[in-house]
Specification:
The chain is mainly alpha-helical. The chain has 10 helices and no strands.
């Protein structure tokens, strides 16, 4: 990795940390939110074998537009058009409401770029692993199962480009709550 590539990754990590600094996960421990995008990058690199710099940077930044005051223009100014595009592809438009956002993820999955598909797969892998090990507070069995099933609908729409990540998703999906 050359110094410019290393710089981009560190810059993306620091940017995400600043943007998510006051956010917590919805689990019982109220884990720091920044753990989530860092975990995505780790899954991509160490489990999925993804080495594309823009994909990894986008994974670190994937929730900044959706969950903070960050704009797409801001992402582009700091990280370039490619990273902006990937982040936009995986970002929900929260103004649509939860149900519409979930349906939009299903509908948009088949048209995602190769890079956005990798980020989406890593996101769903991480989220399902969290639901198995440390689910959001108050999520009863039925809600956890519904989340697993919805995530599978999203992933089924983007299969065909990342066999290793798809296999990892299938492995965690096999741990669907209530399937013991």
């Amino acid at each position: 990795m050359n110094p410019d590539e290393l710089s981009l990754l560190v810059k993306a990590t620091a940017f995400a940390a600043r943007k998510h600094k006051d956010q917590r996960r919805k689990d019982d421990a109220s884990s720091p939110y920044i753990n989530h995008p860092v975990y995505l990058a780790d899954v991509l690199v160490h489990e999925g074998g993804v080495t594309d710099l823009h994909t990894i940077a986008a994974a670190l930044l994937h929730d900044t537009i959706e969950d903070t005051e960050t704009t797409a223009d801001e992402i582009e100014a700091h990280f370039g058009v490619t990273v902006r595009t990937i982040v936009e592809e995986v970002s929900d438009d929260k103004s649509l409401g939860k149900r519409a956002c979930k349906q939009m993820q299903i509908d948009r999955a088949p048209s995602l770029s190769t890079q956005a598909r990798a980020v989406k797969l890593a996101d769903k892998i991480c989220n399902l692993r969290d639901v198995v090990v440390n689910p959001p507070t108050g999520w009863e069995l039925e809600r956890r199962q519904a989340y697993f099933d919805w995530a599978k609908e999203v992933i089924d729409g983007l299969r065909g480009e990342h066999a290793v990540l798809e296999e990892l998703f299938d492995q965690v999906y096999a741990q669907r709550p209530g399937e013991e």
